[in-house]
Structures are given as C-alpha cells and as structure tokens.
C-alpha cells in the first residue's frame, strides 16, 4: 500500500509543494506511482522523509542533507558534531542579545525619558549607533568595566548628560585644534588631552586604567561608529581617530613612568 502526496503532506505537516520540490531535486522520490500516474510513497519513503525533516529542523541545507543520506554512516556523525557546535555558538549569541535587550529595557525604566527635541538639545550631532552598542555588548559583556559603564549611563539624568556633553564639546574643540595645529600625537599637548578623556571616562562611567583606555582608543581608530560617539562626523578630520589613539597609548607610557623625585 502506498501513501498519496496529500496523505504524506498532512501526516508530516509540510506542503505538497515541498514534497514536489524534494522529488524534483532527487532528495525524496516516491517509490511507486498509481495506475493514474500519481505519486505513491512507501513506508521506507516516509522513514527517509522523517530523516530529512530531522536534519531540516537542525538547520541543515538540503544539499548537505542529500550528502548525509547518500552515506549516513560516513557523514552523519561529523555533520551533526559540526551542527552542534554551530547551534551552541548561536545560542550563546542569542543569550547575549537577550542581555542587550534587558539592559535596554533597564535604561527605559530609569525614568529618564527624553523627547526627540531634548535628545538633540543634549546630544546634538553625537549619535549613539545601536548596532555599535550591540556589537560592543557582544564583545565586552563579560568585562566588569563595561558592565559598570552601562549601569552608570543608565543612571545619569538629563542634567548629567548635559554636563557630560558640554565637557566633551569643549575637550573636542581643543583636540581638533591640537590636531589642526600639527601638535605631535605623542607630545605633551596631545597626551594631556588623552589623559583628560581617560579621567572623564573614570568620573562619569567607570574606572578607566590605561590598558582599558588603550582598548577604547583602538576601537575609535578601527570603528567609525565608535569614534562618532565622541567626535560627530561633521567635526572629524582624516587621521584624527588615529591621532587620538597614538596620544592615548603615549599617555599610557607616560603614566607608567615613576614620578621624578
């Protein structure tokens, strides 16, 4: 006795169109045909379909499923191990994204709600790119400094942010002036500006030792989204992010030297 396409579709919970596609690609062709030419599936065909649906549920593409089913003993275990690793990686990433969402909800629940006009008033052209925020959380979620920084940012009031941004604008003007004047990135003027930035991070967000400051500056030079957090695109110059990075690392060396007696 064979099973019609409609019967198999209903039993397996897939569409007739899917079964036709499996037949067309050779992944699952019915064993028999009725006298009228209709497809008829055997018990063995249904067992093969069950395997196909199992691998599909795990996310395997159809071409990989076909390869496994051609020689299941040789390929299935290795393929399943690889899929197991991938699924675990995806689970880890999704868990971190959940943490990002939870932190975003915490920010919304602090009671600091700004209208679009107030946001522009406080932040001006400095934009907080949510894609960068997500990437940063995924990379640094397990660092205590990042966690403290996020908690501090969530706790700041509108007045706090206004002061932070005012201080940042004044510092930014002096940074671009030093860059435009050709002051050496490893000179006293640039290093002093780097140290001011480090102290600001420590004061407003989280203690910022020089090694952490170096990682932050590396990110400024590598990712335009990060640098836009402190210098809006309209105020940037080619090479300014790298200039600040050099100044930050030079300042770290300076800070590590013992004080002269």
Top CATH class of the largest domain: Mainly Alpha
Low-confidence stretches: 106-112
- The average pLDDT score comes to 80
Q: Tally the structural domains.
A: 3
CATH superfamily descriptor of the largest domain: Antibiotic binding domain of TipA-like multidrug resistance regulators
Total strands: the figure is: 2
Helix-strand pattern = HHEEHHHHHHHHHHH
At CATH level 3, the topology of the largest domain is Globin-like
Distance between the termini: 98 Å
Structural class by secondary-structure content: mainly alpha
- C-alpha Rg, in Å? 29 Å
The CATH architecture of the largest domain would be Orthogonal Bundle
**Tally of helical runs:** 13
Shape summary: rod-shaped
Widest sheet: strand order? 1-2
* Helix fraction bin: over 70%
Q: Report the β-strand fraction as a percent range.
A: under 5%
What kind of sheet is the major sheet?
2 strands, antiparallel
Domain HTH merR-type: 1-71
Coiled coil: 77-104
Keywords: Activator, Coiled coil, DNA-binding, Transcription, Transcription regulation
Protein name: MerR family transcriptional regulator
Question: What would your notes on this structure say?
Answer:
The structure is a single chain. This protein is mostly helical and 261 residues long. The protein has 3 domains: 5-70, Orthogonal Bundle (Multidrug-efflux Transporter Regulator, Chain: A, Domain 2); 75-109; 114-256, Antibiotic binding domain of TipA-like multidrug resistance regulators (Globin-like), CATH 1.10.490. The chain is built from 13 helices and 2 strands; from the N terminus they run ααββααααααααααα. The chain has helices at residues 5-12, 16-25, 43-57, 62-70, 72-108, 116-123, 130-140, 144-155, 158-180, 188-204, 210-222, 224-227, 240-256; strands at residues 32-33, 39-40. It has a two-stranded antiparallel sheet. Mean pLDDT is 80; it is low at 106-112.
């Amino acid at each position: 006795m064979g099973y019609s396409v409609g019967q198999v579709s209903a039993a397996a919970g897939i569409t007739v169109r899917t079964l036709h596609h499996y037949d067309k690609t050779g992944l699952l062709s019915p064993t028999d045909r009725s006298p009228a030419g209709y497809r008829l599936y055997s018990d063995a065909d249904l067992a093969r379909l069950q395997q196909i649906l199992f691998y599909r549920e795990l996310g395997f593409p159809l071409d990989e499923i076909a390869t496994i089913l051609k020689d299941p003993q040789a390929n299935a275990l290795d393929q399943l191990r690889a899929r197991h690793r991938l699924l675990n990686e995806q689970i880890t990433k999704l868990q971190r994204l959940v943490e990002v969402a939870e932190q975003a909800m915490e920010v919304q629940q602090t009671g600091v709600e700004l209208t679009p006009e107030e946001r522009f008033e406080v932040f001006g052209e400095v934009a907080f790119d949510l894609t960068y925020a997500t990437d940063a959380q995924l990379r640094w979620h397990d660092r205590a400094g990042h966690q403290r920084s996020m908690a501090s940012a969530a706790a700041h009031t509108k007045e706090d942010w206004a002061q932070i941004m005012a201080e940042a604008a004044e510092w930014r003007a002096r940074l671009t002036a030093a860059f435009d004047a050709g002051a050496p990135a490893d000179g006293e003027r640039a290093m002093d500006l780097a140290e001011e930035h480090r102290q600001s991070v420590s004061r407003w967000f989280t203690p910022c030792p020089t090694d952490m400051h170096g990682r932050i500056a590396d990110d400024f030079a590598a990712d335009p989204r990060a640098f836009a957090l402190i210098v809006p695109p309209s105020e940037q110059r080619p090479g300014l992010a790298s200039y600040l990075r050099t100044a930050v690392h030079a300042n770290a060396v300076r800070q590590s030297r013992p004080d002269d007696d």
